[in-house]
Fold:
Amino acid sequence: MNKKNKILVSACLLGNKVRYDAKDNLIDSSHLTRWQEQGRLVPVCPELEGGLPTPRSPAEIQSKFPLRITSFTGEDVTPEFLAGAEKTLELARQYDCCCALLKSRSPSCGNLEVYDGNFNGTIKAGSGATADELMRNGIPVYSERQLDQLIEFIDQLDSYDSSDFQQEAI
Ligand code: SF4
Structure:
């Protein structure tokens, strides 16, 4: 297996109780189980990496330019979110991750949608601090809602790797 096929994953999707409310977002997927058994998953919680505790007050993005993220209690947590994004990128590089599977709608991990900043459950188009950092640096980000696309992507990489291997063996 090519080491490039490691996948960075939101720790909460693997059942780690790292969410703001100390719960998880475990997803039940045989593919994920197989990748985990193969040692391909690199779990990370960017908010913990940035120094926030569990449990913590939920946070939402108030503005993108400049980035401002606040907690429900009004605390500015932008520095922690940015630090978490930077450390997560370092981790992705350290393990040479080919892509990331991140929790949708999180102000850190969301790749296509986020909550709108009013703490009333409204969703809008947008992305979180860590998803942005990874995508800016060329690492494709999928959410658990796009698992089929991620599976297809990984299957393609695996088939390229095995055809490289066969060519080398000839
Ligand atoms: Fe899950 Fe990401 Fe939130 Fe951590 S920051 S709890 S990994 S969604």
